[in-house]
Amino acid sequence: MLKIQDLGYWYQDEAHPLFQGINLTFESGKSYAILGHSGTGKTTFLSLIAGLDKPKAGEILLGDHALKQIGLTNYRRHDVAIVFQAYNLFTYMSPMNNLLTAMAITEAEHAGDRAYAKQILNDLGIGDNLVDRNVQQLSGGQQQRVAIARTMCCDAQVIVADEPTGNLDEDNTKAVIAQFQRIAHEQNKCVIIVTHEPDVAAQCDHQYRLENKQFTKLT
Amino acid sequence: MNFFKRAWLNIWVKKGRSLLLILVSSAILMFVLAGLLIRSAAVKATETAKNEAGATMTLSANRQAAFKKMRQNSSRSSSKTSRPKLTLTPVKLSDATKIAKLSNIKTSNVTSSTSANAKSYDTVSTTSGMGGNGGGPTGMKSSASSGDTQIDGVTATSLTTTFSEGQSKITKGRGITANDKNTNNVVIEKELASQNNLTVGDTMTLKKTSGNKATVTIKVVGIYTASSTSSASAGPMSTDPANTIYASYTLANTIKGSKYAGTADSVTFNVTNPAKVSTTKKAGNQLISSQYSLSTDDASYQSVKASMANVAGFANKIVWLVAIAGTVILALIVILMIRERRFEIGVLLSLGEARWKIVAQFFTEMLMVIVVAIAIAGAGGKFVGNQLGSQLVSQSTTTQTTTNATSDQPGGQPGGTKGSGPGNRQAASTKAKDLNLEIAVSAVDLAELGGFGLAITFLSIMIAAGGIIRLEPKKVLIS
Ligand SMILES: Nc1ncnc2c1ncn2[C@@H]1O[C@H](COP(=O)(O)OP(=O)(O)OP(=O)(O)O)[C@@H](O)[C@H]1O
Ligand SMILES: [Mg+2]
């Protein structure tokens, strides 16, 4: 699905890259956890996969096409969905409108389908009483579930999440990770999660650690 | 069109912020509209001034030509001891009729003045004691022997500046009209009337000062009052202004003598379009011989035009200054708004939204705000415009009237039409004082306001759009 070839990235100093010569493959239908100490470059790596930035060296391929070939905006619109630690949602909208907006922008198959969006929200525990409420009236865990629902209602094959459970309690964390697992296994998508928490990583199909500018496969 | 829906949701949900934006935009647009209204009112006022302030053209004897002829005569006949005589040819009414037919002429007023001596009544005497023997105000050499009663022969009193500008007013009966031609009807001053117990319908008699000194019976059809300003400008040599009797010019001609039939001292034409007065003068000059001359007076029109040009120019500056300042203010607000909403923009970009559509969303939001603001400004702009407009007019007219006093017919026609009624000079300043800007919101003004509103919105968004174009979702969302 996603092929990383000789990937390298640095901010200012080319002599001291964050990582260099990375070769990895991420398959669809699988979930991946990326662990690592703070400041090693996990988020930076994820931003490259998410098409938010261009690699300094090497290439990322989706199927047979390099991202720069596809175009980053196009790639973000059609192929990848992102969940951040916070600020994921449009604060002036309801969960329903957040999903409808995302589907419209990404030209998703189910764009405009309220029943479909509602089903996904319900599945993630956002009940009918919350569906049309302003998202600012939802708890952090509920908001994060809406963000995950948004990645599910769009057609993106790659789902990336940067510490999606960073602000959540234990119960919510479990529920969210379980959802990601379902997305990978039931919707046959490729899920890549950056996390600090070994418990979270343990639930994923594969684990990588970013250390000394290299990715090491743990499981 | 998803950005349109987003714009609407944003404006609707964040009502407080939308309201603030509407208030700021309304304030800006209100000043723009005030400027626009004052400008269009000034243009309209100039238009009206053409009709109301008007301009006149006067046909009278050519004094310069007459002087030249007199000098030629005196040098040729220098042996003779007699003083050279200045002969002014009275204006022929047939010439006046021809000029009156020119396209730009609205009305014409024949003026023929003379004097006679009171017979059945007593004249009003001035406190300075100059009463009985004032100089003949006609300026006509042929009627040099002067009486104690000034006869101002006119076509109609309403056509004289003295009456039209309000220095004299009919208080009883009626004024002289064109229908009084060939009658002995007169209008007398209130003081003269009360002193002699005369009222409308009474008759009185006076005596000619020349020829057979015959008695003429005249009939009072109206009584007028003269304000003190008109007497001040009547000159030191005249009799008390209360002794001025208005009559048809035919009566004045009869008193002057039979050879004056069909003539006048001068004929004053009111022109329809003061802007074209010089063209009309040219056309008029083709119709008359060099014995006569046409002089024009459009001072009051010029003064109105100049003061309105001042106002319009100032209003124009207001419009542009406010528009520019408004654009800058709105741009700053939008820039701040973009900073505040960088997460939202970041999420939109991460979803793959095109940047121009995000700009379009902000533009649509501001457009919704501005449409409401235009409506509010449309309602309030009239008020602001009225306040500002009256301030401006009072300022510009005071400066105008002072320049007016000196711009009075330079050089030409020195006193040639003294008899044609005093007050031409005051006409300009009186008119300017009466000037008022009529502030009214027309569809054109609103359309122009809409144009400015759109332009301000568009420009401010364009200025602020750099913030959206440069925004990097990675930096916003991953920190
Ligand atoms: N825009 C930037 N300019 C320069 N240096 C940066 C920039 N963003 C990140 N860095 C640096 O790059 C390194 C990697 O940052 P990154 O955010 O990818 O780490 P991380 O592994 O996600 O850390 P954490 O676990 O704390 O989130 C850090 O040392 C950071 O200071
Ligand atoms: Mg990070």
Summarize the entry for a quick read.
The complex is a heterodimer of chains A (219) and B (479). Helix content of chain A is 37%, strand content 25%.
Description:
The complex is a heterodimer of chains A (219) and B (479). Chain A is α/β, with parallel strands linked by helices and 219 residues long. Chain A is built from 9 helices and 10 strands. Chain A has a 6-stranded mixed beta sheet, with helices on both faces. Chain A has a 4-stranded antiparallel beta sheet with strand order 2-1-4-5. In chain A, helix 8 links the parallel strand 7 (158-162) and strand 8 (190-194). The model of chain A has no long low-confidence stretch (mean pLDDT 93). Chain B has 479 residues and is α+β, with helices and mostly antiparallel strands. Chain B contains 15 helices and 12 strands. In chain B, helix 2 (15-52) runs parallel beside helix 12 and helix 12 crosses helix 14. The model of chain B is unreliable at 128-144, 229-237 and 402-433 (pLDDT under 50). Chain A binds chain B through residues 43, 46-47, 50, 52-53, 73-78, 82, 84, 87-93, 97, 101-102, 104-106, 134, 162, and chain B through 2, 5-6, 9-10, 13-14, 343-344, 346-354, 472-474, 477-478. The complex binds adenosine-5'-triphosphate and magnesium ion (MG). Adenosine-5'-triphosphate binds at residues 11, 18, 36, 38-44 of chain A. Magnesium ion binds at residues 42-43, 162 of chain A.
* CATH topology assignment of chain A: Rossmann fold
Oligomer state equals heterodimer
Total domain count of chain A: 1
CATH architecture of chain A: 3-Layer(aba) Sandwich
CA radius of gyration of chain A = 17 Å
Q: Number of helical segments of chain B? A: 15
Spatial order of strands in the largest sheet of chain A: 6-7-8-3-9-10
Q: Average pLDDT value of chain B?
A: 80
By helix and strand content of chain A, what is the structural category? Answer: alpha/beta
Low-confidence stretches of chain B: 128-144, 229-237, 402-433
Work out the strand percent of chain B.
15-25%
Termini separation of chain B: 32 Å
Shape of chain B: elongated
- The helix-and-strand class of chain B reads alpha+beta
* Largest interface, Cβ cutoff 8 Å: A-B, 29 and 23 residues
Rg of chain B, Cα atoms, Å: 34 Å
- Backbone shape of chain A: globular
Count of the separate structural domains of chain B: 2
Strand content of chain A: 15-25%
CATH homologous superfamily heading of chain A: P-loop containing nucleotide triphosphate hydrolases
